[in-house]
Backbone:
């Protein structure tokens, strides 16, 4: 139950779509959990920190823990943690 994104093209991107330079965060998945603007800002900050922390395993582990804390506070309706692990 972590943050999931997909590759997406961005304006003026010269790469092929399969090697897109952008990512897309699906807001319906976020709002279904009950998250709003403040949480989206936090998600954006977590993504930015992740990109800046490439290769820093301690920083990445800390960020992962923050993601798990955030998603635990906003579970997917009808999905328990036990279902998510199955």
Residues:
């Amino acid at each position: 139950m972590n943050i999931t994104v997909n590759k997406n093209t961005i304006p003026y991107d010269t790469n092929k779509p399969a090697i897109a330079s952008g990512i897309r965060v699906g807001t319906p998945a976020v709002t279904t959990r009950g998250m709003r603007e403040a949480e989206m800002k936090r998600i954006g900050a977590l993504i930015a920190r992740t990109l800046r922390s490439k290769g820093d395993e301690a920083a990445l582990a800390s960020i992962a823990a923050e993601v798990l804390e955030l998603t635990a506070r906003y579970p997917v309706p009808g999905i328990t943690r036990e279902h998510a692990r199955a």
